[in-house]
Amino acid sequence: MNELEVHLDADDLARALRADVTAGLTDEPKWLPPKWFYDARGSELFELITELPEYYPTRCERQILTDRAPEIARHTRATALLELGSGYSTKTRLLLDALTAEGTLSTFVPMDVSPTALEAAAEQITADFPGLRVHNIVGDLTRHLKHLPAEGNRLIAFLGGTIGNLIPAERRTFFEDVRSVLEPGEHLLLGTDLVKSPSVVVPAYDDAQGVTAEFNRNVLRVLNGSLGADFDLDGFAHVALWDPEQEWIEMRLRARWPMRVTIPGVGLEVGFAAGEEIRTEVSAKFRREGVERELAEAGFALDHWWTDRDGLFAVSLARA
Ligand code: AVJ
Description:
The radius of gyration is 20 Å and the shape is globular. Helix 2 runs antiparallel to helix 8 (211-227) and helix 3 packs parallel to helix 4 (92-102). It has nine helices and 14 strands. The strands form three sheets. The chain has an eight-stranded mixed sheet, with helices on both faces. Strands 2-12-9-8 form a four-stranded mixed sheet. It has a two-stranded antiparallel ribbon with strand order 10-11. The chain has 320 residues and is an alpha/beta fold. The site of N,N,N-trimethyl-histidine has 11 residues, from strand 12. N,N,N-trimethyl-histidine binds next to strand 12.
């Protein structure tokens, strides 16, 4: 069984994109939110990133979930798995397998801003898990959590380290929102990339093959395609910087020469000085104490903290 529930239609998405572009490109310094990377091409580029030798988070998280999925199933006995920002749901299968083996699972609810990613994943999952109800939700995790189904014993999964895209104030709101959606005793499974040497983390965001650079510049391609903008992609260099105070990676696009860009979809003309940057993504890295504290502040108890063998990435299981 496969259903699609849409809280964000093409019009809402277009409106949100226009609002973000107007706010971000008239600000000083300029910024764009990372969610606009993920059109079909951006999602494909991200899939390629997950296979790069330098990009460790996906492999580490998969290792943890492979080892721990049966324990997660036994501990939660969830009847519904709700996955936020599910994308293509590749690692989710490990959880679906374990919860199916545990005999508790009846419903899978993937939520993503991308209907294409949801459709592609749902087709595979309905084929591989006969009898599982797949309830797809097109929505934004900062706005549509209240639409998540209320029945059953729910496990919300937010994997991949995507929580790192939120700045601390946004994170606090997000954890509070998730907590208020859950009933006491239900669970949150959270993937977080960990603080480590910049010599490991920086190459993960600036790979030798230049896939991440293409992914970064793809946001300009999205603006060209959806808003009729005339960004010259060759005019922007990919930058990945480690901020040791904030303990996050920043991705930026740096203008190689002075430029004027017109963006008809929002009626803007935007000037760039040579060397001027747009911040396109923050990817925060975490420590156990910080994750535990932020979860506790939102009303979650940390039941389990698991890392991969090299201690690069963590998966937390928290109880509401
Ligand atoms: C999908 C947000 C987890 O921050 O590592 C990968 C996105 N950006 N390479 C991350 C990303 C550059 C990724 N997340």
